[in-house]
Amino acid sequence: MSRLTEAAVGVGLAALGLALTLAAADSLAEPAPVAPPAAPAAPPPDAPARVASYRLEASLDVPAHRVTGKGTLTWTNASSEPTRELWFHLYLNAFKNDKTVFLRSPFGAGRSGDHGSDYGYIDVSRLTVRELGTDDLWPRAARHSPGDPDDQTDIVLPLPAEVAPGATLHIDFEWQSRLPSIVERTGYSGSFHLVGHWFPKIARREPDGRWAHFTFHPQAEFYADFGSYDVSLDVPAEMVVGATGTQVRDERQGARRRLEFHADPVHDFVWTASPEFRERGEQIDGVRVRFLYPPGHETNTETAVDAIRFALPRFNRLYGAYPHPTLTVVHPPEHARNAGGMEYPALITTGGPWWAAKSGVRMIEGVTVHELGHQWFQGILASNEQAWPFLDEGFNTFAEMRALDARYGPGSMIALPGLTLSGAAARRAVAISAGHDHPVAQPADRFSSFDSIGALVYARTAITLETVGNVWGHDGLERAFSRYARRERFRHPGPKGFLEDVRVELGNDAHGSLHTALFDKGWVDYELADLDCVEIGPARGVFGDGAARTTSTGDGEKQRSCRALVRRKGTLRFPVDVELIFADGTRQRRRWQADEDWATFDATGKSEVVAATVDPDRLVLLDENLGNNSRRQRSEFGHRALERLTYAAGLALALAGP
Amino acid sequence: MSAVARTRRAWRAVLWVYGLRLLAAWIVASPLARALTSSVAAQHPRGDAILFDAGGLELVESLRLSLPVLASELKGALLIGTALGALSLIPAAVLLAALVEETPSGLPRWLGRAVELFPRFVLSFGARLFCQGAVLAAGAIALVRLHRRLASSWSDQSAAFTAAGLGLLVLAAAAALGILEDLVRVEAVRGATLKSALRRAARLLRARWATLTGSWLLMAGCSLLLPLGAASLVGLLDVSQPGASRLIGVTLVHQGVALGLVVARSLWLSLVVELGSAPRAERLPIDLQVAPAGAIPAEVEAHDAAPEPRE
């Protein structure tokens, strides 16, 4: 080797050494980007991608209402963009103090309607990412939600290195959750615990690389990626535990029990524990349904069993098979009533006082079928409930309403002697009253109140769909739902796909009306504006010319010529029938496409039209005013109403009088 | 005389009370019915039959559309109802006067007696309402607090049954006040001053509490069962279907119930009258103990039953 060569080699080695040193130094400050595996296995088309899978171990301290846990999150960047951050939802911090987004308004306490009496929070004590070294990364996490120093439910964690699309991280973390008194379907009441939103939950990353992260707003619900959950729970031995998924182990260890659950694919995991629970099991349509209820609620449970026996096969048929081997139905005790009426994957809570099933008001049936329906719209389809609440709550309310109508008929909401009330009648009144307030299709936090969400997202969506089904056919609408629910299974759909399915099954008019009703505050009011009849005879005057000229005085048989004027106000258009009722008792129905704002319907004959009605079958439940749909020549005094009210007043006088 | 015979003898007064209550109910109900039927039913080809359709769509819509008018009419109806309720002390007094008298007279005499008694009846009615209100309010507060306390540690059903037990006690206390007022009224019709009527009523209530409670419960049970039975029957008649006969049938059932309630109350009051007037042994035990049988002169015995001088 020459000196020059030696020198060159020396310089080369020095350069290499420097490069290696620099590289090593760089790797200390910032790990190498996390690359995707060489050949990522594509999931089968109808299976969800397991984007966020958790393995959790937790222990419940009952007196302190505290859960201490550690776990591993296996997360894949399923988007098309790399990321340098992770977003976590620490939902339990919503109940940390009175300044959080959830609790700060004195006018709204979320769906539960009440503030809790005790506060709760979640503390992450350590978080490491195996692919990025052994350092605890949690100190790098933001201390509060973006732009809101008083809220800690939406936390960003900057990463020391980029995570490439398709790459997977193994995130180890430890945390402690302090449960609040029952509020918003999580917390404790006495020895009853409903443990929801209890671990650090990674937000969903949309395919385009946007993080769907948000603070926990009192009007909003949740959104997350699917994954498998393996959860080990350590609880006092006397606790009866129900949880998302299937119990795979139950081991007694002295005064404690260790239970293990497996759930897959789900996007959340909730569990409940109480020493008071009674238990009942039932195999329904291939699913092992487990009912947990407090003592004294046997009749309620029987009613819930009956409702699920009917609804589970129905929903399986309409929206695709329920994907889990088990379903847990929890009836919270009365003192924990705010835990009732909530959906989590494979676990739902019902609710109601112990006498509810005998009251004549179908609250047990209603809440059971409603929460069961969420297993599809929230659990399987898993739309973004914060951005498009109507895709879950609205569609599900419609599904519930149809199921209860099919099962219980016109008394689907109240069935008392002499009085029945259907879900459609009750929801219509609510839906119409709020129809002009907001569009239905908008994010949850843009509604002025939770009442507004109740009226628009729940009731108006259901009434809109009921109207579309009534007018264009429920069979077609069921097909549209069926296509949507099967195609978008585990895919977090937005509204477009369903609207297209409606177009395919019911046509452009149905699609247009549905779109206007949901997105543009669409409304309609049909009115029978006028009903008039005149007597006409043969034509009078001079007819013909020359020798053929004749004069008619109009003598001869008279006829009645009647005209009904019908109007359509508003931005929606549904074809309707117009019914003319004649004095001789005959009826005529004519179709009005309602393309125009008004139309007249004429009838001439011996018998005059004594009454007319637009939409006589009340198909258009979105009609703002049913009071102007009819006209009659002579209005009728309400003898029946007077009789009933006189009787009621007589009873009141007998009761309160001397 | 048995309670049934006494009630039968006062049938004109029973009918009179029923008729006046029907009139009062009609006065209260008419504006409400007008308001309720003015929106949907007035122009609908089926009239107000649609309000009784299964599912309640038209009923809910009528309530929604007529709510502002209905709310205003309801306030008026409550005012009128309260006034008529107070005035119905007169027919109540008429009924009692008819039940108490031993020699049958007629409406003018009962009415005269009722007008005479009106101030005393108003006073006892007001006092009873006040006491009942206080008992019910205090009971309701205690009930809510008890249930809240029990609910967190007891099972739902045990907490509810315990609270219901307390509720029953509260209702029993309120009912006892009602029974006491009925006894006072009977004594007042007999001519006692309110003070002595109250004393006598309390004595009778103590002496015959089992009979009185049993009879009152029977009357209350009938008064509850009658409307419940009628509700089932009326559901079968279904006035949402066309046909005046259905409406007539329902009216007959309902008015049968209304009349039945008046009859049940008359029977109860007759029993009170009987108990209050019959066995001397229970009213003056000391006299009977010290005096040998037949030793009390007729005029002394008559004095005991005679009306006291009015205050």
Can you tell me about this structure?
The complex is a heterodimer of chains A (658) and B (311). Chain A is an alpha+beta fold and 658 residues long. Among the domains of chain A are: 223 residues, Sandwich (Immunoglobulin-like), CATH 2.60.40.1730; 106 residues, Immunoglobulin-like, CATH 2.60.40. Chain A has 10 helices and 32 strands. Chain A has a 7-stranded mixed sheet with strand order 4-6-2-1-12-15-14, with no helix packed on it. Chain A has a 5-stranded mixed sheet with strand order 17-18-19-21-20, with helices on one face. In chain A, a hairpin with a 4-residue loop joins strand 28 and strand 29. In chain A, helix 4 packs across helix 6. The radius of gyration of chain A is 32 Å and the shape is elongated. Chain B is built from 12 helices and no strands. The C terminus of chain B is likely disordered. Chain B has 311 residues and is an all-alpha fold. At the A-B interface, strand 23, helix 5, strand 31, strand 32 and helix 10 of A face helix 2, helix 3, helix 5, helix 6 and helix 8 of B.
Short description:
The complex is a heterodimer of chains A (658) and B (311). Chain A has 658 residues and is an alpha+beta fold. Chain B is mainly alpha-helical and 311 residues long.
List strands and helices in order, with pairings.
The complex is a heterodimer of chains A (658) and B (311).
Chain A: H1 3-29, E1 52-61, E2 66-76, E3 83-89, E4 121-129, E5 154-163, E6 168-178, E7 187-189, E8 192-195, E9 201-202, E10 204-205, E11 211-212, E12 227-236, E13 240-243, E14 246-253, E15 256-266, E16 271-274, E17 278-284, E18 287-293, H2 298-319, E19 326-330, E20 342-344, E21 347-349, H3 363-380, H4 389-408, E22 414-416, E23 419-421, H5 423-433, H6 450-472, H7 474-487, H8 495-506, H9 508-519, E24 524-536, E25 541-543, E26 550-552, E27 559-570, E28 576-582, E29 587-592, E30 598-605, E31 609-614, E32 630-632, H10 639-656
Parallel strand pairs in A: 1-12, 18-19, 19-21
Antiparallel strand pairs in A: 1-2, 2-6, 3-5, 3-9, 4-6, 7-8, 8-16, 10-11, 12-15, 13-16, 14-15, 17-18, 20-21, 22-23, 24-27, 25-26, 27-30, 28-29, 28-31, 31-32
Helix pairs in contact in A: 2-3, 2-4, 3-4, 4-6, 5-6, 6-7, 6-9, 7-8, 8-9
Chain B: H1 3-9, H2 11-37, H3 57-87, H4 89-100, H5 107-151, H6 156-189, H7 194-207, H8 209-237, H9 244-277, H10 280-283, H11 285-290, H12 298-305
Helix pairs in contact in B: 1-9, 2-3, 2-4, 2-9, 4-5, 4-9, 5-6, 6-7, 6-9, 8-9
